[in-house]
Amino acid sequence: MATAAAPVSFSSTKETTNYARLCRLLVDVGSYVLRDKFDSIHPPTDLYKDLITHHATLQLLQRRKVLNPTQWGNLYPPIRTSVSSKNFDITLLTVLLRNICSLSPPATGWDALPPATDMSSEADIARVKYLRNTVYGHAEKASVDDATFHVYWQDIKDALVRLGGPAYEVAIDDLKNECMDPVFEEHYRELLKEWKRDDDNTKDKLDEIDRKLEELILKASTSTPLPKDVEEPTELIERIRQLYQTREGRLSPFPWCEDFNFDINDIFTRPTIVRRDKTRRTAAEQVTSITGVFKPHSGIFKPRTVLIEGEPGIGKTTYCQKVVYDWANGKETDPSFPKIKLVLLLKCHDLSGDVWEAIDDQLLPRNIDEKEKENFFKYINANQSQVLLILDGLDEAPSNCTKMFSDLVESRELPKCHIILTSRQEGSVKISKFCDTLLQIEGFVSDNSHNYIMHYFKDLKAQGQNLLMDIEQNNELGELIVNPLFTAMLCLVYEDLKGGLPLSKTQLYLEITECILKRFCQKQGLSHNNDDLTEVFKEELEQLGSIALKALKKDKMHIEDCEFPGTTGKSPLFEFLSVQSNSSKRRSHTCYRFSHKSFQEFFAGLYLSDQILKGETDFETLLANERGNLKSLEPVLLFTVGIICHKSENGAMSLLHIIIKKANLFKNCMLQNFYLCFAFKCIGECSTENSGLRSQMINLLGTNLELQELVISDNSFPIKLFVEALQVNSTLTLLIIMVPLFGDQFIVSLANMLRVNKTLTTVRCMTNGFVGAHNVQQLADSLMVNKTLNDLMFSGNAWGNDAVRILADYLKRSESLSSLNLNFGDIGDAGATALAEVLRTNTTLNSLGLSNNPGIGNPSVMSLCEALKVNTTLSSLDLSGTGISDAGVLSLVKVLKTNASNLTSLLLSDIKISHQSLKSIAEVLRVNSTLKNLKFEGNKVGVGGAKSIAESLKTNTTLKLLSLSRNNIKAKCGCLFSDSLKVNRTLESLTLAENALGSRGAQLLSEGLRVNTSLRHLDLSGNSIGSEGAESIAETIRVNASLTSLKLKGNNIGDPGANKVSEALKVNVSLEDLNLSLNGIGTAGAESIAEALKINATLTALDLSFNVIGDNGAQSLSEALMTNVTLVYLDLCNNNIHSAGAQAFDELQGYNNALKMVSLARNSIGALDDHGDQELYEVPIGNVPLLPFSHYFSVQFTHQRSFVVLVSKETLMLPQQ
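Structure tokens predicted for NACHT domain-containing protein:
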């Protein structure tokens, strides 16, 4: 029997609606604005005449296929006078503005983001396109979070209003809060996609024209004769080719293995190279060939300087070798690659003078005649556009070469010469902004590394296949073979060991070390008799480790030969180092480097492990002394623990105990701390091949850990190990896991833990992927045994009807669970009906959350309503984002009208209902006597619905919380709610965020707020109230003595509005929580707020994130907090604050005993100065997606005794304990 096709789904979320709104703003308003701009230059009455004038220009674009037939027909219709810009699409308008409107490209070109100071029409046209591309970067998921949405919206709005005039401002503000049908959301997403595709096609055609012009120019330039005093240095160029063919034609990365060298053509595997946006360093596109690095891109039609960044060992030098080797052999290049007659490869580490000295030193014959050399240099100067200069290893150059590099990339020296530079990112920060193109080598993707391995084992294919299988089973190896150098090393060791690899990283590096030492003994004719060669050569390896550690602390990869005093060339030390290629004729000393940074870290760890085992270094003291370097030294410390464990399991247990002790110093901080993460990494490293030790270490951690609450937000956190440890833990009560977990494996671990854990009361986590019925049953069985858990939440698509039926069966017998949330799942009517049946008899559950399960429809809601009539305990129900409609709402209304249930909280946001249902909900508020909280967001309430609800509030005497965000509530509704607030005496919280109240609506609402005495919380975020609306609200809080929380986020109040609010704060006696984020507040506004903080005595939480207060504003606030004794939490995330501003807060801790947390994340903060006796720990906490922190989250820090500065998404600064 055939089944009916599933209906097309047009479901939406807040984030997808954000994206669709941005699409609509760009496509709809963008078209109108660009058309207005075009019409102002070419008035509609004379358009046909103007197009005749520009016919030749446009015809050329048509022939080049920049204009398609439809666009051409719209430009030149059969009746010429009927032409109208109303028929021009946005792509055509953009082409016309650029080509026939006498507009000059901005300094950065048409395709790049102009500087903020450039407010010209040309800049705004370019800005709109750039912002279009930025928004389109979210197309894959078609979603944008709130914070990003507000930033994008404001940037686009500013550009469009400047272009089109102030008349567009109101329309744009209305559009921001207007509800969108999911079908229309999809429509605008497709329109933006079409615009981007059409624009890209146009750009490709224009790029093709530019390339052909460049070829013509180049052809003309090559035909230009050399100056009379310069001869073609044919013989010398040929000698340089021969040098490259010989020197760069073989890869020999390991000096200790003389037979390990390959012809570059046999073994070279192209790494992944991506072009990155210079502003945000985000990936823009992949480079498809090694000579495709000069390809034109946004705003740069003919790149001259290319910077290639990458980690050590990732393949930067090999890339350079391949480029020059291929040039020397006349290999074909990418079409975008310039026509080059001469390539000059210079190794930056060997630079000792200017570029001319380097060319002489590294490339020219030792016996070259001075006259010949002078002619060669003149030839380079006369043929710069046909010369490619490659500078390999910018980060390794002597410090006195900085000016030379700057002169080259800034066109002060060899201004027409093409240049490729390579560097680690940290070594090229100052130079990168001047380069035309920024690329990054990301190493091997899976296929690349697999190809490399099979190339290596081309005569031993079985071994190659076995190694690939081992890699597939070892995640650590899978990560390491991204690095080409490590892949080569792995092949060598695997061959030497005749297959088979250890599971732990420490053991793998010990095996590599043993293998290298064996080869050393063989070369030197030394007998080793299967001895432990790391012990035989212990003294030499300790020396190498000590040098490695010192270099790491200085962030150095190179080691000078002077650091090996008294060491001969026959020492095994040099078996682990690559001799840095010395192409200099002048520098006589030798320089070494580790083949890969991980080997440097391994030997540093080997050294520390010996020091600890000999009692010369105390591990706890080591952690304290290196607290500023914990993040960078983590791999070293992990090797240290792993090597000690290899020698002594008891020793490893002792170290773990010390790490746990450190972790407990942060028991009052909910975020995972460095020591906790590191403890689990140590367990993983020490016990991969020893299950007994693994159990001991997990038991030690679980029983000694003193954390009470933990939020895990880092994808790399070893959650499975942590859940195992909780089986014996007796302190943790709350666990929130904010990273997605996959299916069965986690559920089984969780079930095993809950069966025996006696302290956890709350578990909330995200689960994705299928969860089998058997494993859900295990979880249900564990919940039956567990008597302490009362709050359980699972979010994610792992939960469907079958899983819910099993949980429903458990709820029939549950004696402890009071809150169950199964959000964002695949639950349908069958699952929800099963839960409804349980509610008839269950006597413990008081909160049930089923939000964002679109499969839940009217039938199951009707079943829930029937259950609510007999259930006596359920007080909170969340059906937001489900598939219910008017019939389902009507069923709920009937129950609520008769007061037949005990529901006090109902969440019904983002559902598809009619205006009639809105009236029914309003009627409930008139007669219901139990409902205290109603969340009704994103339901297209509009003016009519708002009127009904506002009228009901006049008589309602029970509702305490009402949330009506995203409901297209307009300015006139301010009067309606104002009238309600004048008479209502019970409502404590009102949320009207992301509507369209505007300044007038805020003014009207303020009248009721001035006399209301019950409202505690008011949220007007995202209502475009501006400075005028802020002034009205400020006048209110001058006299209102009941409001404790006010949110005005994203209202563009600016410095004038901030000033008005600040003046009110000086006299306000009730406000505790104020949110002014995303408001364009600058230094002046921050200074006003600072003055208010010197006087205000009630405010405890202040959110100023996503403004532009800068260092001066931060310093003013810090100065105010010297005397303020009430503020507990301050959020200054994303405020253009640098080290000077951060330092002010760092120094504040000695003066302010009330402040518990300052968030300075997403600011450009470098290193902070020393702190004397109050020195701070810099504790890596992983990726924290919670920023900016909510007031709720900041409350978790209020019981903390010490001061916290959150300086980035990855680092928490805490005082020394």
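Residues 344 and 389 are 5 Å apart (CA to CA).
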